[in-house]
Amino acid sequence: MFYEDRISVATPEGVTLEVTLAGVGSRFVAGVIDQVLRWSLLLALVALLAIGQVGFGGGGFSGAGTVALIVAIFFVQFGYDVLFETLASGRTPGKRWTGLRVVKKGGTPVGFLASALRNILRIVDSLPGFYLVGILSVMFTANNQRLGDLAAGTIVVRERRQTTALPSSPAASVPAPADSALYDVSAVSAEELATVRRFLERRTTLTPEARSRLARDMATRLGPKVVGPPRHWEPEAFLEYLVATKAARG
Asked: What is the pTM of this model?
C-alpha cells in the first residue's frame, strides 16, 4: 500500500473531482527527461550556429552569433515548457512519459500566461542549486506546489491510465437516435443541458480519470430524469444522445 496526496477540485461543470497530486520523485524524473531533451536541442543549435560561422569565414562566434546563442538558450530553457504546456494540454514530453499534467487549480487547462509565469520562476525554484527551493516548496506546501505553481495558480497532477476507450467525437457530430421521439427529456433543464455541452466540448482537454468520472457523475445524476434510453449505454454515449435528442426537439 502506498500514500498519495489527493485534493478535491470543483470543475466548471459543477462536479467535484478527486485528483492525485504529483510528488517530488515523479516530477524529478519528468524534469530529468525534459532537461536531457533541452540539452539535445541546445547542442543541435550550437552545432548549426558554429557551422554557420564557419561558412561565413569566422573562426569563432561573432557578436551576432553570441547574441543568437543567448537567445536560443533562453528560448529552449524557458520556451520549451511553455510551448508544450500550452499546446499539449499541460504535458511536456517528460510529463507525458511519467503520466503527469499541469492544470489550473480549478481543473481547467493551463494557459500561456500561467505557464509562462510558472516557468520563469524556475530561476528562483532552482536556487541555490539542484532545485532545492522548488523541492522544499513541493514537500511543504499543501498542494505539492513549487513557487512557480503558487504564483501561477497551477498544480501538477498524476493521470490515471484509462482502461477502456472513450468516444471523442464532439456532441455536434452525433445524430439524433432514430427512436428519439420515444425519449422523454423534458425534465432536463436548460442549465443542466448547458453543463453537459460544456463537458462534451472540453472533454479532450481533461485527464482520462477526470473525463471518465465527470461523464459518470453527470450520467448518474441525469439518468433518472430521462425516460426511454437503454441503461447499458456508456456515460458519454448517454450524454451525447441526450444533447442530440434535445437538439432534435428544438
From this structure: 0.65
